């Protein structure tokens, strides 16, 4: 119930912010914490955390054309000069704003904050970082979990994915909110289902490849398509482009080949 109430409160915050002229939505997470996301499909969630006279930005990469407005929004809210930038991983849609803020005096990936903990895993990328903000009970996980796309655990394979999921689930408590790299925040019960569904997906792909089915045949399999739809948190239609569906199956097969199956 607490998680449900928190999500409703965030939705109200999002809707209120979206009615203004800004290119961003703002979602309050708790004491000294919110995240911003550009008002466009598949935009990156940007964490904004206040600790004393310091301001911490997590993945401030909304696109080059929006960096100046992002900076202005942050300064209007907090008016601080001691700025820090942290990245959950190095991909451009998360680290693309680094240079902009470094040129304005920010410190990059310098970590010494009382209210923030970090954890290193290998799942989406070889250098994934999870950030836990204790005051707001929020967990920033980057693309280890993506709430508007299929799972992308290509660096860590099956073992890395499971380790990353279990690491997130151990952080904080039952009421912790998980902020994905893209899409809406979720509670831990949703992440547990996401883990289960990902392993079900891999298990089904493994079964089908053992039957020597082609990728085109796999994509027509009713059970596999039902599992894929479980990742469609936003209920888009269609959920993925055909090319992305095919690529997901291809990469899943490559991971299974590498790990020896499920």
TrEMBL record:
<dbReference type="GO" id="GO:0008270">
    <property type="term" value="F:zinc ion binding"/>
</dbReference>
<protein>
    <recommendedName>
        <fullName>beta-lactamase</fullName>
        <ecNumber>3.5.2.6</ecNumber>
    </recommendedName>
</protein>
<comment type="similarity">
    <text>Belongs to the metallo-beta-lactamase superfamily. Class-B beta-lactamase family.</text>
</comment>
<dbReference type="InterPro" id="IPR001018">
    <property type="entry name" value="Beta-lactamase_class-B_CS"/>
</dbReference>
<dbReference type="GO" id="GO:0046677">
    <property type="term" value="P:response to antibiotic"/>
</dbReference>
<dbReference type="GO" id="GO:0008800">
    <property type="term" value="F:beta-lactamase activity"/>
</dbReference>
<keyword id="KW-0378">Hydrolase</keyword>
<dbReference type="GO" id="GO:0017001">
    <property type="term" value="P:antibiotic catabolic process"/>
</dbReference>
<keyword id="KW-0479">Metal-binding</keyword>
<keyword id="KW-0046">Antibiotic resistance</keyword>
<keyword id="KW-0574">Periplasm</keyword>
<dbReference type="InterPro" id="IPR001279">
    <property type="entry name" value="Metallo-B-lactamas"/>
</dbReference>
<dbReference type="Pfam" id="PF00753">
    <property type="entry name" value="Lactamase_B"/>
</dbReference>
<dbReference type="GO" id="GO:0042597">
    <property type="term" value="C:periplasmic space"/>
</dbReference>
<keyword id="KW-0732">Signal</keyword>
<dbReference type="InterPro" id="IPR050855">
    <property type="entry name" value="NDM-1-like"/>
</dbReference>
<keyword id="KW-0862">Zinc</keyword>
<dbReference type="InterPro" id="IPR036866">
    <property type="entry name" value="RibonucZ/Hydroxyglut_hydro"/>
</dbReference>
<feature type="domain" description="Metallo-beta-lactamase">
    <location>
        <begin position="43"/>
        <end position="182"/>
    </location>
</feature>
């Amino acid at each position: 119930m607490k998680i449900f109430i928190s999500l409703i409160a965030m939705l109200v915050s999002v809707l209120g912010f979206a009615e203004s002229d800004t290119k961003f939505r703002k979602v309050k997470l708790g004491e000294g914490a919110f995240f911003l996301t550009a008002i466009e499909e598949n935009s990156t969630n940007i964490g904004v955390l206040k600790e004393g006279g310091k301001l911490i930005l997590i993945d401030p990469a909304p696109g080059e054309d929006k960096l100046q407005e992002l900076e202005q929004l942050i300064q209007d809210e907090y008016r601080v000069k001691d700025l820090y930038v942290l990245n959950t991983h190095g991909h451009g849609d998360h680290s693309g704003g680094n240079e902009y803020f470094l040129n304005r005096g920010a410190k990059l990936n310098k970590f010494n904050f009382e209210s923030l903990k970090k954890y290193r895993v290998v799942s989406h990328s070889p250098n994934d970082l999870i950030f836990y903000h204790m005051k707001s009970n929020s967990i920033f996980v980057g693309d280890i979990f993506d709430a508007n796309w299929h799972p992308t655990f290509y660096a860590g394979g099956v073992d890395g994915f499971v380790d990353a999921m279990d690491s997130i689930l151990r952080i904080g408590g039952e009421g912790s909110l998980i902020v994905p790299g893209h899409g809406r925040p979720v509670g831990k019960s949703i992440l547990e289902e996401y883990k289960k569904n990902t392993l079900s997906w891999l298990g089904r792909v493994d079964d089908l490849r053992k039957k020597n089915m082609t990728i085109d045949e796999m994509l027509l399999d009713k059970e596999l398509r039902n599992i894929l739809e479980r990742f469609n948190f936003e209920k888009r239609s269609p959920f993925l482009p055909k090319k992305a569906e095919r690529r997901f199956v291809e990469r899943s097969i490559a991971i299974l080949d590498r790990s020896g199956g499920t």
